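Continuing the series of single-chain predictions for the mutant panel. This is the parent chain; the variants come on the following pages.
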Amino acid sequence: MLRVLTAILALTLLSSNWATATPYPIDQWARRAAISNIQISPDGRYLGLKKVSGKGANPVIEIYNTDDLSAEPFRVNANPMEIISFDWVSDDNFVFRARQKVRDQVEGFNRGVYETRIALVDVGEKAIEVIEERDPSIVSVLPEKPGKIMISFSEGGNRDVGQRLEAAFRPRAYWEYDLKRESKKLVIRGKISLGNIDFDGAGNPILARGFDLQEGEFIWYYREASSDDWVEFHRQHEDSYDSFQVWGKDPSLPGNFIVEANNGSDTTGLWSFDPKTRKYAELLYQRRDNDICGVRYHSNRWTHYREITGAVHCGANIEIEFFDASEAALHQQLMTAIPNADALRITSRSKDGSSLTLRNAAPRDPGTHYLFHKGKLQIVGGERPYFASADLADVRFITYPARDKTPIPGYLTVPNGKPPFPLVVLPHGGPFVREVVVFDEWAQLLANHGYMVLQPQYRGSRGYGQAFYQAAFMNGGQGGYLMQDDKDDGVIYLVEEGLAEAENVAMFGWSYGGYAALVAASRSPNAYQCVIAGAAVSDPQMQVDYYRYRLRGSSKLEQLAMWDDSISPLEEVDKVNVPVLLIHGDVDQRVPVDHAEKYLAKLGDAEKQHTYVELEGADHFSNTLFYDHKTLLYTSILNYLANECGLENGMRPNTPSSEIEPTVAQQP
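Parent structure:
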């Protein structure tokens, strides 16, 4: 076990202890993480990581001997494919997943330009074997069967039915793949009524979800390891907004599952659930201000596979309520030993528990990776080693009053300097998602250039209870109405607090956030001097028609109410009263570039001030924005804010942002 962590407080910090008023060049913000995906082998001999060595370099996997990280590593390159991730499957073998761009254009909604493969690497033999199946999913690395993994594929049949369901419920076939023999064995073939399957560490099916098409109900099943029979233990109608998510088995009550559910409450709690009686047995953790933010699994997946050891709460910080005393003690030791400790987690651990890797992230730490081996804690490296923590910005979790007095949560990234600051409102996409801000690249980029950034958790955001979420689409879709008011009310609050100036505000958003920016451009009176809309939905009807007939139940109700009844920016171009910067990827599969083209045509007809930037080869998602994309994106944003928008750059004499605190902000 770890006995010396508390003695290792004199670590060499990744970043220096000085700050500069000069922003970092775009070149450094545009780079991908220098290292990521750090994992130790089951026997603790090897440390593997994914590395990007230069601005536009393709990722490689490097394998080091844990006894000497300074020695030359064994490298694996997948050119022309791009390595996405890797996992150890035995002491000497790992699998990696890679993708390749195979088309120049998308093939329809949610059908992008990439295909994926997986491959096995034998470190001892320095040999690579590619698994030929197209677009496989790695379901599980089987800790009780070294050298084997569980993979799944979508198969033909029931395709029309499957298109009417969420992807999680479409039928898949599950295969146990023997990596040495390069052979696979069918374990189970899913179907609509029983299709999404989880396995234990030996590859036995233990949990499944399905959908009853006739009754319109989601179904949960369990199966004993000694049986081939599935037993139904929960049903929920598709129109229900109640949460019911099975996270895993309850280690304290054999036979029970740990589930996240509302069970009559506005916020979700973590419960022990008895599948035999179909009843909630015990409440393990719940808060009134937030939903559960997830669970923490045991740090040693080889000996405690998917064993739940705690509940996660996300608010001002990420907090863990541990159920396991030893895991709690280990976490506390690590929090004490790591500089700027915040979102800290063990990313891998050897079978004997004596060696581990861990990652920390915080507003002033973009991601630092550590190795604990043979009683010594050492830094492996930083994801962005060129950033000094003193030059980055603090993040505050605040709440502010909406005009109807509803408290609206938000994350405020405060630059080093003296207020008032120029303000950029950065609404998240979705919109029905949960946003947790630790280190946000876009917010930190803007703060580094002197802009304060508000990321409002407007109504419709998940994580703050059912009522808060449903307010976005009850009584008609509130896109452009109540949801938009929540964003503008954040501006009013920060101006009243003296942290921002009313004539020095902009909005920048992506996806739904881009939609919100287009809505903001047409509001009157307008709270913003300009808007920047990335991958924006300009025509809600066109967007919802992509999947109108694929949705069912509560998903259909929320999406159709949201987009059918909300404001259409395309129909409000005549009301645009501030400059607009429109940015879009030309192979966006989620919000096709048609949205930008239609909106641009109307802007031109109405002779509205605007600029358009197209990102060639960029899809909708951040992992398809490469160095050249981000260089153009960030340069365009910063130039627009300073020039067409006219916001001051905010570079004032340095004041620690820890000294800046809203006076009325409420901490739940």
